[in-house]
Amino acid sequence: MAKGTIKMDNPPPPPVIQAPGKSVKYKGVKHTILVMSGKGGVGKSTIAVNLAVTLSDLGFRVGLVDADINGPDDPKLLGVENEKVYADEKGIVPVETKYGPRVISMAFLLPSQDTAVIWRGALRHKAVQQFLEDVIWDNMDYVILDFPPGTGDEALTVAQLIPDSDGAVIVITPQDLAILDAVKAINFAGQLKMKVLGLIENMSGFVCPHCGEKTDLFKSGTIGKVAEKYGVELLGSLPFVPDVVLNADNGVPAVRSSKDIQDTFIEIAKALINKTAESVK
Question: Is 16 within a domain?
Fold first, then answer.
């Protein structure tokens, strides 16, 4: 063994996640759905935004919490990135969008879109806590919470703030590395006793804008095997559609730019409504 190398015949097991600390209770919200991913770059924010818009289109009052402090992209996807929040005597007023959901995000609090948030964990924790506790969420049927990526300190902080959420939707792409990280997210939820409501497969293939033919860019069929192995439902699969990307850059959600994407999100939303239907009127 080389000098300075530490031999570990019996490496320690992963640390056990501690029981949640102080949680918040934000008033006027019937259901909270967390949108998670084991890693960044899988389209988690896009899924969260379009799920929120779809639920709003189906007649529900919807709030959207952009809890990704480092990369607050939800306002851009909804075309409200230049808006600012304000407070009245009741609390912080979320930004209204023409697509239905009301949204709160760190993006509204930064001096410019280029500003980096260089904060330690305690400040990030406090910001998310305020998004839940101090924002006026009056009579919301659903709040969609766009989780920080990964399973580290920020994700744990958010999960501990709302231990009584309805559960998590995990966004996954059909690559071995992304699947490996998504499985970690499933186990993360399990350790926190958080229900996994289902998986959403993103980037499941490329749809040619000329002929409409779908081509698999990665693998196919692997997500279904993951869902079966871990006993979770595959809620839907979403392909690459070039027009969707272009419209998203202009603040137009995918469900407003593609009928096929809209139909898939409606099926996803209906499945989630059924899973959380007990107190929704």
Answer: no
For residue 87, give its domain range.
29-276
pLDDT tens-digit map of 250-273 = 999 999 999 989 999 999 999 999
Convert the pLDDT of each residue in 175-185 to its tens digit. Answer: 777 788 888 88
Report residue 224 as tokens.
């279904």
CB atoms within 10 A of CB 160: 18
- Specify the number of domains making up the chain: 1
pLDDT in tens, 56-77: 999 999 999 998 888 899 999 9
Locus of tokens 């081509």:
215
- CB count within 10 Å of CB 83 equals 16
* Exposure class string for 122-145: b at 16+ Cβ within 10 A, else e: eebbebbbebbeebbbeebbbbbb
Q: How far is residue 98's CA from residue 155's CA, in Å, rounded to a whole number?
A: 29
